[in-house]
Amino acid sequence: MDLRLLEYFLAVSEELHFTKAAEKLGISQPTLSQQIKILEDRLGAKIFKRVGRKVYMSDAGNILLKHTLRIFNELEHAQTEINEFMGLKRGKLTIGCSGSHLLREFVLSFHEQYPGIQLSILELPTEETRIRLLKNELDLGIVYMPVEDDQLETIPLFFEKFSLVVSSKHKLSNEPFVKLEQLKKVPMILLAKHYIVRQFIDNDCKEAGFVLKPILELSTYESLLHLVSLNLGATILPKSYLAKINDGQIREIPIVDQKLHKRVAAIYRKDIFIDKPMKTLINHLSQNFEKKIF
């Protein structure tokens, strides 16, 4: 079967819109429709269902999609192995990360030792990292555990703790430590609920017998810190992030009875071919984070 037809099929399956898929491919919409018709004729089955202006995958289309992804994945592996055989000394790796602060020092040391390997680091929620790994859109993920998926391999890196962060003017700023239950009456500013760190916090509080109801929910550590420095509320952040913060307007206070002690791990697909750049990256990660705890 012509691989070009499968490329056209993948484009439509991703967009579920013939015009958008045609624009993505750089061809006209009628040409794309004709090529899909040719593919359907060869298969003897409809692979898309059209209901009004909506396009849906048929059962046959879903079967074809599964095998098409496998075909292109194998082709990528073949190219990688050929590159290895030919002595490729350069490479590019894309990493999905639960926070770029987790890799700040690692990136500097890795680049010094392996300047020929290009790293692209994307800050993504844990679940999105998992999904994009399975779609072959990422080479590696750096995430908070647990991530449960039989298709993924896990390499433990280090344990992460979390601290309460307040303004230097906050009533708790001079406390040597706090207990979780003390936060029940403290105005809190937290990440939105879909972030794994927020889920850790909510679960700990639930086990302690209460629910935190933040006055604000934001999407970045930086925005949380900014509002905390203005004494608008308190927040909870990873110690690995706070380790690089030098701001006299905030105070970091240990939470002594917390269970917020989470494993950070590297994850990748079990079925991928581990080429030299990937092997180098994994080895360097393991050595860089060995026995580290924040």
UniProtKB/TrEMBL annotation:
UniProt entry keywords in alphabetical sequence = DNA-binding, Transcription, Transcription regulation
Domain HTH lysR-type, residue spans:
1-58
Give the matching PROSITE patterns: HTH_LYSR
Coiled coil feature spans: none
Spell out the InterPro entries in the cross-references. Answer: HTH-type_LysR_regulators, LysR_HTH_N, LysR_subst-bd, WH-like_DNA-bd_sf, WH_DNA-bd_sf
Q: Which Pfam families match?
A: HTH_1 (PF00126), LysR_substrate (PF03466)
Concerning PANTHER family, the annotation shows: HTH-TYPE TRANSCRIPTIONAL REGULATOR YBHD (PTHR30419), NITROGEN ASSIMILATION TRANSCRIPTIONAL ACTIVATOR-RELATED (PTHR30419:SF8)
Q: Which protein family is it in?
A: Belongs to the LysR transcriptional regulatory family.
Query: What name has this protein been given in UniProt?
Result: LysR substrate-binding domain-containing protein
Q: Which organism is it from?
A: Niallia oryzisoli
